[in-house]
Specification:
elongated; 8 strands; binds zinc ion; about 250 residues; about 15% strand; alpha/beta; 2 domains; 8 helices; two-stranded antiparallel sheet
């Protein structure tokens, strides 16, 4: 009763002020409630995202290593080998050691080793003739090979640079895996300085339709590398390393 008494005594202006104050408090409470709801929804979404990420991580971890292995389209693995340069295009040279010959020597040895293991081999360049990039790509893609390995020599203005490097296209995880397997086995078999497995920007690895790796087997600008590359035993060890790396990257059924 007292309250009603007081309200009756209030002026209309006072009553309006009180009503407005009450509305403001209600609005403020509603606003705070909305914020609490938004925070809750946000936390829920973050929790769901986190759980999703964890599941994704576990699935990747479980399926991870196997999915980078190379599978065969036909049952028998078909391996394309590309000896760099040829004909008038001799590549780099160091004295008597010429890149187009080194690449052909190593590829021929590699061909023999892989065929001996029961794989089908396609030589992209078969003799000492010049071949354009386009012809190499066309032959590689038409071959329907399961993978391709291109062989080159390296070159640097710095004559002390030496060793072997394997290059792959950054967008292909099978190529990356193949590159890592080749590089590891090549260094182990030949004792070459390890230039690592790296992303590289070459047509023969980026424009081919199969997993592909370009191996620079040694620097022709380095006298030590060049004399090794001219040596038959060393070429054999390089070829053996590359063959082992290729075979390790295959998913045999
Ligand atoms: Zn080259």
């Amino acid at each position: 009763m007292e309250r009603n008494e007081r309200e009756r005594q209030m002026s209309p202006a006072e009553r309006r002020r009180r009503m407005e104050a009450k509305k403001r408090r209600q609005k403020e409470r509603a606003r705070k409630k909305r914020i609490r709801m938004l925070i809750l929804i946000g936390m829920g979404a973050a929790a769901i995202a986190l759980i999703g990420l964890i599941i994704f991580g576990i699935v990747k971890l479980v399926s991870g290593s196997g999915s980078s292995e190379i599978t065969s389209k036909s049952g028998t693995f078909v391996i394309a080998i590309d000896p760099g340069h040829g004909g008038e295009d001799i590549g780099r040279s160091n004295g008597e050691t010429v890149e187009k010959n080194v690449t052909m020597d190593i590829c021929t040895k590699l061909e023999t080793m892989l065929e001996g293991q029961g794989y089908q081999v396609i030589m992209i360049r078969e003799d000492d003739s010049r071949m354009s990039k386009e012809d190499r790509l066309q032959k590689a893609n038409e071959s329907q090979a399961d993978l391709l390995v291109s062989i080159h020599g390296g070159y640097s203005e710095d004559s002390s640079a030496s060793g072997a490097v394997s290059y792959y296209d950054k967008d292909d995880k099978q190529s990356k895996y193949l590159s890592e397997m080749i590089q590891e086995a090549l260094v182990k078999e030949s004792g070459a300085s390890d230039g690592g497995s790296q992303e590289g920007n070459f047509n023969i690895v980026s424009d081919t339709e199969m997993p592909a790796v370009l191996v620079e087997v040694g620097y022709l600008s380095n006298d030590g590398d060049a004399s090794s590359l001219a040596d038959d035993t060393y070429q054999n060890n390089i070829a053996k390393g590359i063959a082992k790396g290729i075979i390790k990257s295959l998913k045999e059924s």
